[in-house]
Specification:
Blueprint: E1 8-15, H1 25-41, E2 45-52, E3 55-62, H2 68-86, E4 100-104, H3 109-117, H4 119-122, H5 128-138
Antiparallel strand pairs: 1-3, 1-4, 2-3
Helix pairs in contact: 1-2
Length: 153
């Protein structure tokens, strides 16, 4: 077969360092648009980028030539730099080390899109930690609670 064809859909979740509520509403959407632009500039598809004050969800269509860890590193590094250059915060902004990545079928696109779109609503009833543990259990990901967050509740 002469070409490579794929449909790889990944939801990536990562938190603000210390899970602090630093992604403030007045400029949060601007950061999410910036992150979408980074994904697009890497020739990947930013389906939706959204989140709340302490964490972000990226839902991407990933081409097989792109290493997911490279994409996440670039998004986090460039977004941190962008936030810091805007001087929206008195101190230095940074992301927590690591991330969660979860794959989906094409038939799940709309459900995942709606889930990411409605982050504020989801987090009225559950914390980021509860949400993240739910993802890890749902996708049967082994984890060590000691290393799950860089600041525990």
């Amino acid at each position: 077969m002469p070409g490579t064809y794929s449909q790889i859909y990944i939801q990536v979740i990562f938190a603000v360092k210390g899970r602090e509520n630093l992604l403030r509403k007045p400029w949060r959407d601007e950061v999410f648009k910036y992150m979408s632009g980074i994904i697009d500039s890497k020739n990947q598809k930013a389906i939706i980028v959204n989140g709340v004050a302490d964490h972000v969800h990226l839902f991407v269509g990933l081409k097989p030539a792109m290493c997911l860890s490279d994409l996440v590193r670039d998004v986090k590094n460039n977004a941190s730099k962008y936030i810091n250059e805007q001087h929206w915060l008195p101190g230095k902004f940074a992301w927590q080390e690591g991330y969660g990545a979860f794959s989906y079928a094409h038939s799940q696109l709309d459900a995942v899109y709606q889930y990411v779109l409605n982050q504020e609503e989801h987090h009225r009833t559950r914390t980021f930690q509860e949400e993240y543990r739910t993802f890890l259990k749902k996708f049967a990901v082994d984890y060590n609670e000691t290393f799950l967050f860089d600041w525990m509740e």
